[in-house]
Amino acid sequence: MENNRPHVGIGTIIVRDGKILLGKRKGSHGAGEWSFPGGHLEYGESWEECAIRETKEETGLTVTGVRFVHVTNVLFPKDHKHYVTIIMAGVCGEGEAELCEPDTCEGWRWFAWDTLPEPLFSAITELKSGRFNPKTL
C-alpha cells in the first residue's frame, strides 16, 4: 500500500513573447487538464535543477533564468494523492516544444495568460485564484 505522505512536484512556467507553454495531461491524475511542464523532485535535486530537467525531458526545450514563483498544497481525493507543487518560472528564447513523452501529454501549445484553456490543472487554478500575473516575471 502506498504511503499517504505528500509528493513534491515542480511545475515550470515558461514565458515566451508574452505567452506561456501548457500541455494537455494524460495517463495520470489530472488527465485531460492543461498544465505546465513538470514532474517529481528527485532526491538531492534543487528546485531549479528539477525545473530544467523536467522541461527538457517533456518538451525538448532548454529553460534559463529559472526562479521560484509560488507553492501550492493540493489534495486529489479521487486519486488518494496529496501534492505540494512548487511553481518555478523561466524563459526559453528559441526552439519549438516537442512531444517527448506521448504517454503523459497530448501536446504543447502557447497561450496568453488571460486566454488559458479549460480545464486547468489544479495547481494552475490555485495560482490564478491568488491573482498571479506572469507579466510581472
Overview of the molecule:
The chain has 137 residues and is of the alpha+beta class. The chain has one domain (7-131): Alpha-Beta Complex (Nucleoside Triphosphate Pyrophosphohydrolase). 15% of the residues lie in helices and 39% in strands. It has two helices and seven strands. It has helices spanning 47-59, 122-129, and strands at residues 7-16, 19-25, 34-35, 38-40, 64-76, 81-91, 105-112. Strands 1, 2, 3, 4, 5, 6 and 7 form a seven-stranded mixed β-sheet that branches. A hairpin with an 8-residue loop joins β2 and β3. The mean pLDDT is 91.
Task: Describe the protein's topology.
Blueprint: E1 7-16, E2 19-25, E3 34-35, E4 38-40, H1 47-59, E5 64-76, E6 81-91, E7 105-112, H2 122-129
Parallel strand pairs: 1-6
Antiparallel strand pairs: 1-2, 1-4, 2-3, 2-7, 5-6
What key phrases describe this protein's structure?
15% helix, alpha+beta, 7-stranded mixed beta sheet, single chain, 2 helices, 137 residues, 39% strand, globular
